[in-house]
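To assess whether the prediction recovers the assembly geometry, we first specified each molecular entity separately, as shown.
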Amino acid sequence: MKNTLYFLAGLTCALPLQAFAHGPSTHHGQPDAHRQVSKTISSDAPLEPVAARYTERRIDNKTRGTHTAAWYFWRDPTRIETASPEGRIAEAWARDANGRISHARYFHEDRRVIEAATGELKARGIEPDWQELGKILDPRDFPGMRRIGATSVLGQRASIYRGKSGSDDLEVVWLDAVRLPARITRYTKTSRMILLLEEFHRDNPPGWQRVDTHVTEDYQRIDLADLGDMENDPFVRKVLRISGGHGGHQH
Amino acid sequence: MKVFARKAISLSVALAVGVAPMTPALGAGPTTGGAESVQDWFIAGQRFIADGERLQSDEGRAKNVILFIGDGMGISTVTAARILEGQMHGRTGEENSLSFETLPYVALSKTYSWDQQTPDSAPTMTAMITGYKAREGMLSVNHTTARGECRAAVIASKSLPTILEQAAAMGKDTGIVSTARVTHATPAATYAHTAVRDWEADSNISTCGANPAANPAVVKDIARQLIEVSPKVKASLKVALGGGRTYFLPKTQFDPEYGSTKGRRSDGRDLTAEWVSSRGSDAVYAWNKAQFDAASPATTRYLLGLFEPSHVQYEADRANDPAGEPSLTDMTEKAIRMLEKNRKGFFLHVEAGRIDHAHHAGNAKRALIDTIEFSNAIRKAMELTDPRETLIIVSADHSHVFTIAGYPHRGNPILGLVKEVPMVDGQSAVPAKDTLGLPYTTLGYQNGPGWRNAITSGAARPDLAAVDTTDVNFLQEAAIPLDSETHAGEDVGIWAKGPKAHLVHGSMEQNWIYHVMREAFGKSDDQQGDQQGGNDHNDRD
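The predicted structure of the complete assembly is given in tokenized form:
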């Protein structure tokens, strides 16, 4: 979780799946004692491959305006992907045979990809935990979360957790066997965000578009290390601007 | 009377600010400070004067010139790295000197470019390597060049000869070494001429029509320029070491170290193979440490080493690289041992390219460790060369918004929280607090990713009391939130030793560094009538 958060902070505009997961008390490069402790509690066996579809809703407390978006999520032993068909953005974490984790963010409209090798992630205080990346948000990683009941979702047994994440109230319905959130509701001072699992599968269903490396082969690849020297590139400028204006970031 | 008055004043000041009056702790010694005796300061000063009196300018010609550039190595980076290195050796640190700080001639370099107050690495290296200030993002072309200029003929007319090319014309051997990609702005400015520093592979040239590599009217990408340099430079450029493998490999080819990574070239060419095939049987291409070590300077005539798909590892991470990578010191030594075989001499450029990247990430420790390794490489170069025949110049292209703040006591860990000299001798130093009552680090950035989001955290600043700020992944705080920390516009240092090194003095324009090197080499036949600012003589545009 912490690492996902670091990714958000370092790699520009946030994908909502991770936005749900962030915890306000963490900061760049600062070990969070609570998380370190709870992480040991929640360390589990390898995660099973899964393909999941979520719907995200954000409701503004004042205007009652609602934004809805679809999100796709895939995990397998060497790759974890998220994709937003609406935003034409995707991102992928990859783990190689040496255990090195790298990251790529795909901007399909711009035909660009920003790549970050392990060392570059570390330089930004990002040390991803593969298990944490694969679970989106494990309520057991949050010290303030308490299990308050059980339910059934999509034919699966689920636990209900409630508690605090920084100053936000958080409720998570957690699929115990699949180890994925079925529903996350985050109440902030200004909005309510709901992430709802619509369906999940062991194999990727037809029509669900993961990153096609044959297509992205022709994308222009940018090393994250180079962003600082590319601020006159219109694409880089746009990416940095989006990031700078994103209030949900943890810096 | 005076003593009484002073005590009364200090008492009233103490009461006014609401603190207890100070009373001297008789018998208690200072808890912070250096190891020097009182006399040591004077003796060291006298030694400095004596050394200065013996200093004689070397008016001779330089057989060799080595230009070391710490990318983004501003003065504060040098100071902090000096302290960190000293502290890593168990000393207080401040009194330490990095290897290049012992060089006798020092100046300041004004880094602005033709069109930038705070510059990037392209025009700054162009200034140092050609003698002319140039435009943002452009490599070794004059400032009349249009942004995004694609036409090869126009680029040729605007091209500025580099000191590397001039050394080649003089029959010297040449080399480039970098911890960045060898096609990155700083090393590339030595051999490439282009309006866009990012055109490192043909696939990066997106605005010059379809398939630019197949169009001879379009300027070549930088990797291709390295392989297809002029005949004189091709014969001269014996060694190129650094990162950037994928810029030399076709998109269809997998990287040898990272199985899922492919090359970037759309033209289908494997330029690493072409390096070998176009330079004879004694040419070597190496992509890992074992191959690098196996390339003997005695038998290897041309050596291309590309040790990562992009930039090489930060020095702090290098030991963890599964394929192994040579350090900047290793690469510098190999380059010198290859180049010194030419009796006419050599020109070598060595860049510590990742200082800049670590600063952009807001990560001071990695920047400083890379700076220390840079210093190690310079020390090795000084050991391997004769100061009577080799001019060594050390500088930076630009600075970063990196600061050393507060009033930390002598020997306070440079990566730690500020702890001041205790107000009373004998007391221990405790962390200084800001107006919120929170401790803060000595090192910080004016902007960058280290900004902590006060809006969502609800805290104006993080409490760092229990945080290990010396951790290699710690990001120093930044005042202004930017995803990438920025360069800074203040002057950087120049350090020099060897023939004509005395010409490095005072407050210099950055492009004058080239003129010092040129003067040290002496003019070649080619230089006697060389182009004044490109072939088009159109420098008043």
